[in-house]
Specification:
Layout lengths: L2 E5 L13 E4 H4 L4 H13 L6 E6 L5 H14 L4 E9 L2 H10 L4 E5 L11 E8 L7 H13 L2 E5 L10 E5 L2 E6 L1 H12 L2 H9 L4 E4 L5 H12 L7 E2 L20 H8 L6 E5 L6 E5 L2 E2 L2 H11 L13 E4 L5 H9 L3 E4 L7 H5 L5 E4 L3 E4 L7 H15 L3 H12 L1 E12 L1 H18 L3 E2 L2 E8 L2 E2 L6 E2 L4 E5 L4 E6 L7 E11 L9 H4 L1 H11 L1 H5 L6 E2 L1
Parallel strand pairs: 3-4, 3-5, 4-9, 10-11, 10-12, 15-16, 15-17
Antiparallel strand pairs: 1-7, 2-6, 5-6, 8-9, 12-13, 13-14, 17-18, 19-26, 19-27, 20-21, 21-24, 22-23, 24-25, 25-26
Helix pairs in contact: 2-3, 2-5, 4-6, 7-13, 10-11
This protein binds alpha-D-glucose-1-phosphate-6-vanadate (VG1) and cobalt (II) ion (CO).
Length: about 550
């Protein structure tokens, strides 16, 4: 076996987005494409001699091919040890857990998360750093810069490594440990939640349906929920990871997980429903006939955190991404703890978590997490809910209703316009940016815009600045409309429009969110001329 240095030329556009580099599988299959990006990433971890790397993915098509390439490149670049998930499987939260527990210098997650998979689907690479979290912007920018000037990469010509069996092997002096990634992850969850109480809940007949959407959480959920917590067999459905996720979007929102929503509204509805996404960092909680919004979930977990062993000493602060509803802000105010507002994407929570400024954080896009790792964590959030249900004796719906009664309700919705022509989407955003000063004072009915800006964030820990993170229209009554372009898509542009309206009056908590938000929805359409720019008369996805 020998190490080879291969000459290469840069590929345009290897710029990581909100969460890693995402492209069509066919793009990643171009000779040298994956290699260039991985070499650039390895250079950013340098020096790597003797250090540990964790490697795995969500099981999507091209996962196993990419793992073989990366193992040979890791050996050629001098990594001391690689922990690789059996069959290439490691969920995003398990990756974060493993990096921290084994003191690795970093991790590579092969996932495009909620994007569809298969030969015609998407593939992705996320680079995590030694704290277990996504690489912050200064690192992703450095990786991108390297991809633009790369001339060569290093790779061993070692034969294929068998990653189907747990065990230790070696190539070119680099140790490879094929591991069962459920073990450390389950240990971590056991240290945070009252497993006995949850076991008692299931023993008393509590029923649940967990839909893994044919993605990576299946094996984790099966062993932890059914194997250890006593949920009855069959609780986990679609639990075997498939390379194309059965042809679906593994995105746990009420649109893509509609079968679960329908089941929870049907005559045989269990007490609770839950789902997770492609790489298991996002989750959905469903009560009977009712889906919990992620923004509410964050607020409810924060308000009740001390009921759970891992957080019994209290929480230091919370953070939410800017478009996430302000429900958590009210909880933080009542608890007299800080609430931070960050740009979209998990990488912006890392410094706040490392500095101990926050304990819980979350995003409107069905992701929540805490100091336990540095990624959002789907199964953790589901166990948090189960623990709360077990110790309070209340149902999902009761916990939510009780929360609204005490804090008021935030009506919330996100409207996505997918596959918009990129130039037209940029024209829409530029137009809004130019209009910002003139929008202050805009009035329609009782709605008055008080402030309008393009969100800019200064990290309170390291002072780094992230600009142009979304157009915000802020109304006198606290309502908000936010416009931003997605940073995870692979075809054209996706416009996301977010609506948030706070309703303190308990007599008005029973409305349909689209109805409660209809004024704001009309205002957004007018101000941004969404139909004119996108050519679409309605969103492609409403969550
Ligand atoms: C989306 C979500 C964002 C999330 C990101 C990655 O980004 O809006 O909240 O952090 O996906 O999640 P965007 O740029 O498309 O809006 V995951 O589960 O893909 O790692
Ligand atoms: Co994900």
């Amino acid at each position: 076996m020998s190490i080879q240095t291969i000459s290469t030329k840069p590929f345009a556009g290897q710029e990581p987005g909100t969460s890693g580099l995402r492209k069509k599988v066919t793009v990643f299959q171009e000779p040298g494409y994956l290699e260039n990006f991985i070499q650039s990433a390895f250079d950013s971890y340098a020096p790597v001699a003797g250090k540990t790397l964790v490697l795995g993915g969500d099981g999507r098509f091209y996962n196993r091919t990419a793992i073989q390439t990366i193992l040979r490149m890791a050996a050629a670049n001098g990594w001391g040890r690689v922990l690789v998930g059996q069959n290439g499987i490691i969920s995003t939260p398990a990756m974060s857990c493993l990096i921290r527990k084994h003191k690795a210098a970093g991790g590579i997650i092969l996932s495009a998360s909620h994007n569809p998979g298969g030969p015609d689907g998407d593939f992705g690479v996320k680079c995590n750093i030694a704290n277990g979290g996504p690489a912050p912007e200064k690192i992703t920018e450095a990786i991108y810069a390297k991809t633009e000037s790369i001339t060569q990469y290093r790779i061993s010509n070692a034969p294929e490594v068998d990653i189907t069996k747990i065990g230790v092997t070696e190539i070119d002096g680099m140790r490879i440990e094929v591991i069962d990634s459920v073990l450390d992850y389950a240990d971590m969850l056991r240290s945070l939640f009252d497993f006995d109480a949850i076991r008692g809940l299931f023993a008393r007949g509590f029923t649940m349906r967990f839909d893994a959407l044919h993605a990576v959480c299946g094996p984790y959920a099966k062993r932890i929920l059914e194997g250890e917590l006593g949920a009855k067999e069959g609780t986990v459905v679609n639990g075997v990871p498939l390379e194309d996720f059965g042809g679906h979007h593994p995105d746990p929102n009420p649109v893509n997980a509609h079968e679960l929503i329908e089941y929870l509204s049907g005559p045989n509805a269990p007490d609770m429903g839950a789902a997770t996404d492609g790489d298991a960092d996002r989750f959905l909680i469903v009560g009977r006939g009712f889906a919990v919004t992620p923004s509410d979930s964050l607020a409810i977990l924060a308000a009740n955190a001390t009921r759970v062993p891992g957080y019994s000493k209290g929480i230091s602060g919370v953070a939410r991404s800017m478009p996430t509803s302000t429900a958590a802000d009210r909880v933080a105010a009542a608890m007299k703890i800080p609430c931070y507002e960050t740009p979209t994407g998990w990488k912006f929570f890392g410094n706040l978590l490392d500095a101990g400024r926050i304990t819980l954080c979350g995003e409107e896009s069905y992701g929540t997490g805490s100091t336990h790792i540095r990624e959002k964590d789907g199964l953790w959030a589901i166990l948090f809910w189960l623990n709360l249900i077990a110790v309070t004796g209340k149902s999902v719906n009761e916990l939510v209703a009780e929360h609204w009664l005490r804090y008021g309700r935030n009506y919330y919705s996100r409207h996505d316009y997918e596959q918009v022509d990129s130039a037209r989407a940029n024209t829409l955003m530029d137009g809004l940016r130019q209009k910002l000063p003139s929008l202050v004072g805009y009035r329609k009915g009782a709605n008055v815009i008080e402030r309008a800006d393009d969100f800019s964030y200064t990290d309170p820990v390291d002072g780094s600045v992230a600009e142009k993170q979304g157009i915000r229209l802020m109304f006198a009554d606290g309502s908000r409309i936010i416009f931003r372009l997605s940073g995870t898509g692979t075809v054209g542009a996706t416009l996301r429009v977010y609506f948030d309206h706070y309703e303190p009056d308990k007599n008005r908590h029973g409305l349909d969110p689209q109805e409660a938000l209809s004024d704001l929805i009309g205002i957004a359409a007018d101000i941004a001329d969404i139909a004119g720019h996108t050519g679409m008369s309605r969103p492609t996805v409403i969550t």
